Amino acid sequence: MFFDDKPKVNLRGKSSSSDRQLLLARAQRERDERQRQRALLRAALLLQSAARAHMALARAREAIRSEFDAAVDASLAQRVEPGVGGSLAAGFASLVRQLLFFHAAPLDDGRRTWLLGALVEALAAEAAAAPSSGLLRASLTPSLTASLVALCLQRLAAAAAGSAGSAASAGSVASSAAPAFGSAAPPATDSLPLELRAA
Of 2, 60, 83, 133, which sits most exposed with the smallest number of CB within 10 A? Predict the structure, then answer.
């Protein structure tokens, strides 16, 4: 009665160190897989965000390019300087800001060339009419002017590198840089005030 000879059964199951190692390895693989899935999700979200930002920027540039073209067409149709409905200075400053926002070479090379020609023409006319006023020059802030000059220098360097220094190709680059629209061309050098002439 006190001595029961029946074998005792362990209901816990056989537990060995190899089973424990397999369980830990499986748990580690599952953790690694979840971490890989999270990294893939973050990468997909980043790519989608970049694509949406790129498309939104392209749409905004196209809208500003259309506004620029409309302002130029309106000023050419009325044969007045940019800034219709406002001051001449504000009109040019607005056009320079717009061009700096959407400019993409070579698509906008004609727009840039036209704007620079019209700007030089307007500065020369302002200097000849009222040398002391300088409203147009004052509206073009140093940062706007520096950005516009940097853009032009980049395009000049690219054109110089593309032409490889030959005189024949330099002539073709100069002829292809003619304004794509608008009839405003830079004035002759002798009609410019001394301060605007090239040294």
Answer: 2
